[in-house]
Design a protein that fits this description.
52% helix, alpha+beta, four-stranded antiparallel beta sheet, 10 strands, 11 helices
């Protein structure tokens, strides 16, 4: 019960902070461009608590902690607004009346604030505790493990697992964990040689579900605090590296080089939130920075209903000199909603599979 409570609280706090940062970007950009903000909500659904500030914005904390939103004044536009909404518009303060550049700025600043938060978090982390480094070469091979039987040796660098290109030690652990019992081939760089070693991954039980095991360990160098300017530069580099690594991982899933079973959703984020909460403040900050990067990148994907999809519409409008037709926007939004819904459902099924729910149900009914 204690672990469950910690997981729920950590998830709500971590996601709530990151959603607030994202929506704050939209809010501040809207205020800067002279747009009145009607609502700033953390969470969806019924409001648990609400209040109004001096500018007339309603601030909400809502019941369902799965995101949030900012509603600019006049966001719906003349074609979609009711007569009552049009009558309430304040001239010069509506979103739809602003130039396309201002509208695009309001939309893009949400993801931008996520990246800025990641840079700030990494900067603080590196300035206070330093940057721990996981070495890419194997430091230890467990006797009798799949790696040992395959002929892996200390000092080897794993460059691929099956058809999946490996990006580092963390990638090795994540890829192996998601392929329990699989027969595959390790791409190994040893000295000046590149080897291919067949291996059958072991299967371990972890929290009721199967997890792959290879039997190798990687050395971790403990970092040392650095000066603030150095920490800021390192924070920029770390944010860039993690962004590139995330996009490469997404492309590998899309292109079939990596299993789609690695996609995690809300339940997985909650699990990880609870785990890092037990490791200490430095782990929490690092996890929040990584999650903020992912939130920023996902929102920039060119899918309607996401920030990236709206930016595509605004780019087209800037090029053509007129907005994309209402019909095209409506159909695109419907397709985008379907894609997001399918992705949410798929990731949730993955999460439930990973925690052993379907395995338990199978045995319960058989």
């Amino acid at each position: 019960m204690h672990d469950l409570l910690r997981t729920i609280l950590a998830y709500v706090l971590i996601l709530g902070i990151l959603v607030f940062i994202h929506e704050l970007g939209h809010y501040l950009a809207a205020r800067w461009r002279g747009v009145k903000v009607e609502t700033f909500s953390i969470g969806f659904g019924p409001a648990i608590h609400r209040w109004h500030d001096k500018s007339g914005t309603e601030w909400r904390i809502s019941a369902i902690p799965l995101g949030g939103f900012v509603k600019p004044h006049g966001f719906e536009g003349p074609e979609d607004a009711t007569e009552e909404q049009k009558a309430a518009w304040i001239p010069g303060r509506t979103f739809h009346d602003k130039p396309v550049g201002s509208r695009a700025l309001v939309i893009v600043m949400g993801p931008v604030f996520n990246f800025l938060f990641a840079i700030l978090a990494f900067t603080v982390l590196f300035a206070v505790v330093g940057k721990p480094e996981i070495h890419g070469d194997i430091s230890q091979v467990t006797a009798g493990s799949p790696a040992d039987h395959a002929g892996v040796k200390p000092g080897d660098v794993i460059t691929s697992i099956g058809n999946t290109h490996i990006l580092g030690a963390e990638d090795v652990m994540a890829t192996v964990a998601s392929h329990p019992g699989q027969q595959t081939v390790l791409g190994i760089h040893r000295g000046t040689e590149d080897l291919s070693l067949p291996v059958t991954l072991a299967t371990l039980k972890n929290g009721g579900h199967d997890m792959g095991s290879l039997g190798v360990a990687f050395a971790i160098s403990r970092g040392r605090p650095v000066s603030l300017p150095s920490a800021f530069i390192m924070g920029l580099q770390e944010t860039w590296d993690k962004s590139v690594m995330t996009l490469e991982g997404v492309w590998q899933i899309i292109s079939g080089q990596r299993s789609a079973k690695e996609l995690g959703g809300t339940i997985r984020i909650a699990q990880l939130s609870g785990q890092v909460a037990s490791y200490g403040l430095a782990s929490i900050i690092s996890f929040m920075a990584l999650l903020s990067i992912n939130l920023g990148l996902i929102n920039l994907f060119p899918i309607p209903v996401l920030d990236g999809g709206r930016l595509v519409f605004y780019v087209c409008e800037a090029i053509r000199g007129r907005p994309v037709s209402r019909r095209v926007q409506e159909v695109s939004m419907q397709v985008g909603m379907a894609l997001i819904g399918a992705l949410f459902l798929f990731s949730t099924v993955n999460d439930l599979t990973n925690i052993g729910l379907f395995h338990w149900l199978f045995h319960a009914v058989s």
